[in-house]
Each structure stands twice: as C-alpha cells, then as structure tokens.
Backbone:
C-alpha cells in the first residue's frame, strides 16, 4: 500500500483520482482550497481519507501535506482559458507559483514521484495534427503559458534534483462531477446542464472547432500508470493523455440532443479569445512507455456523463 497526495482533491479530476485510489486500497491524503473544487465531490469518501483544506500557495501546508507521501498527483489549478485571459496574475499564481511550492515540498519530503496535470493547450494553434509531444509548444492563452511553465518546472526538478516527475498533457477531460455551473466550465459539462434544463446552449465560433474529448476514466488510468511505470520510461517526460480522435462542437451538440432529449436549437456566438481551433493527440508515446490504453471512448463517456447529470437533477426520494 502506498501513500498518495492529491492536490485539488475536491475538484473534478482530483476527486475521481481519490475514488480510484481508495478503491485500490491505497492511502489517500488530499488538499483543496475550494477555489474551484467542491466539498460535495468528496462527501461519501471523506471519512476514508486524510483531507486538509489548504492552498497550494501555502508552502508550509504543502510541506506538511507531503510528509510520508510516496506519490503526488498535482491536479490543483485554475483550469480555464477565458478566466486566464481576464486574470493572468491569478492564473499565474495558482498554476505556476502553486506548482513550484508543491515541487519544493515534494523534493524536500523525498517523495518518489510527482505526476502533473499538464494541458493540451501548450500546443496552441500549430496547424499540424495530431499533436506529438516532440513538437515545439506554441501556447496562446495565459492559462496555456502557465501550464507549460509548470511542465518545464517538472522537468527541471527531475534534471536538477532527481525528483521523478511525469507530465500528462490532458486533452479536454470530461465526465461526472465536472462543474457545469460556472461560465468557465468545460463545454460538455455546461451543455449537459443547459440541455437537460431545456436552456439553449451557445457554441463559440462556427461549431467546426474540434477537440480530442477524453473521458475521465482514461485520465485516471493514465495517472495510475504514470505512478507505476519504471522511471527509465517516464521520469522527466511529457505524455499526451487523450483518445486520438477529434469531435467537432456541432457533432457534440447533435450527440447531446439525442442523449438529453433537448428539442431546441443552438446559438452561435463569436469565438472566444485565446481559443484553439483544432486539438487532436497522438497517444503512441503514452501507449509505448507507460502502457496507456483508451478504456472508454467518446460516445460511451458522453452517455455516462449525461446519465450522471440526469441523476443529479432528480430530487432525492424521502
Ligand atoms: C482547454 C484545454 C484542456 C484543459 C482545459 C481546462 C485546449 C485544446 N484544451 O480546454 O485540455 O486544459 O482548457 O479548462 O486548449 N465552448 C462553447 N460553448 C460554451 C463553452 C465552450 O462553444 O458554452 C467552446 C470553447 O470556445 C472551445 C470549446 O468549446 O472552443 C472547448 O472549450 P472548453 O472551455 O470546454 O475547453 P478548452 O478547449 O478551452
């Protein structure tokens, strides 16, 4: 049994990792400052873990959180392109300064490995598809720059201090417990809530924007593999975490109409500043070096996701 620290444990991805690790009988410690995470995401598992309300910007709290830990899964972030365009300083603090704190604490506590929630936004709008890890990054939004800077810090801590770090470049992860209610929410969570309520969703752009939408179970599995793979295969390296398929927003809207029963139309609005047009991953590096496989495809993931939001909308029976 190993001990894991999950930063951002009350967030969508963090809380999914908590459940997966507890399900495997691992010891789990979690930190979250509830900036974007929610206590409800941990309700039924809180008693099985060591949860601490703490901010990754608090170095002392991170030092204490890293004590006795084998693996750190660093998910805490302010994960939004548009929010970073409005508040680049806030994005940089959480997404860069916070990461350096976690790394310093992990290094000094002699943690075995840190796995980092990097982002596909690092690739930016380079025309070449699919995106391969060896391609030069070309970030557009402050969020993308911050996530990339943290990736470089991960690699630097491996090179300078020998702390094993692995970066997983997440490609639009979606699934149950993703917050649907903020203007900065991921598009699939937002559309699920809106369409189930019969509200008209908005597509920014012409709808031909595409994403390699990746169901959460695939990201959870990538994290577990990134912890267990031999250091020679993965330490100090970056891996795409995706499915290798891209879906347009128009296709997504059509698929969600069927699943939600929404009868209305979609509204089109101008593209968002900082957005990327197309995103698609080459996943062969992760397949080769950490044994990654796509476990759940887009259609099945979307079905499970919409079902979950439907259940949330139903009143609890007395
Ligand atoms: C970026 C990263 C993703 C992750 C995420 C964290 C890329 C390609 N992906 O996701 O890996 O790090 O940031 O937040 O950079 N949209 C609508 N209507 C809406 C909401 C969104 O049309 O109501 C559009 C949006 O303009 C974009 C697409 O849907 O073109 C996806 O947006 P998103 O916010 O779900 O995720 P994205 O791609 O910014």
Residues:
């Amino acid at each position: 049994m190993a001990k894991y620290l999950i930063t951002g444990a009350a967030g969508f991805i963090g809380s999914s990792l908590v459940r997966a690790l507890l399900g495997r009988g691992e010891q789990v410690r979690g930190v979250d400052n509830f900036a974007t995470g929610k206590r409800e995401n941990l309700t039924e598992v809180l008693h099985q873990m060591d949860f601490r309300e703490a901010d990754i910007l608090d170095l002392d709290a991170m030092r204490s959180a890293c004590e006795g830990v084998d693996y750190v899964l660093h998910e805490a972030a302010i994960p939004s392109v548009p929010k970073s365009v409005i508040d680049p300083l806030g994005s940089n603090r959480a997404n860069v300064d916070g990461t350096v704190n976690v790394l310093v604490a992990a290094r000094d506590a002699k943690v075995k490995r840190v796995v980092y929630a990097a982002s596909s936004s690092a690739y930016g709008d380079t025309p070449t598809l699919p995106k391969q890890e060896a391609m030069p990054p070309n970030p557009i939004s402050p969020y993308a720059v911050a996530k990339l800077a943290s990736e470089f810090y991960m690699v630097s801590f491996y090179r300078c201090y020998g702390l094993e770090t692995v970066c997983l470049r997440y490609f639009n992860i979606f699934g149950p417990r993703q917050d649907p209610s903020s203007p900065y929410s991921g598009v699939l969570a937002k559309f699920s809530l809106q369409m189930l309520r019969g509200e008209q969703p908005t597509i920014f752009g012409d709808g031909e924007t595409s994403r390699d939408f990746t169901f959460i179970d695939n990201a959870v599995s990538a994290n577990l593999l990134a912890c267990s793979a031999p250091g020679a295969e993965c330490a100090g390296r970056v891996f795409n975490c995706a499915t290798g398929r891209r879906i347009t927003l128009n296709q997504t809207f059509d698929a969600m109409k069927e699943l939600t029963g929404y009868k209305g139309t979609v509204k089109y609005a101008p593209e968002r500043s900082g957005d990327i047009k197309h995103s698609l991953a080459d996943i062969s590096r992760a397949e080769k070096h950490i044994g990654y496989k796509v476990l759940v495809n887009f259609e099945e993931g979307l079905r499970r996701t919409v079902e979950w939001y439907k259940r949330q909308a139903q009143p609890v029976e007395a």
User: Anything to note?
Assistant: The domain at 3-174+215-244+281-295 is CATH 3.40.50.720 (Rossmann fold). The chain has a mean pLDDT of 97. Residues 79-81, 119-121, 170-172, 186-187, 190, 202-204, 209, 211, 249, 272, 275-276, 279 surround UD2 (CB under 6 Å).
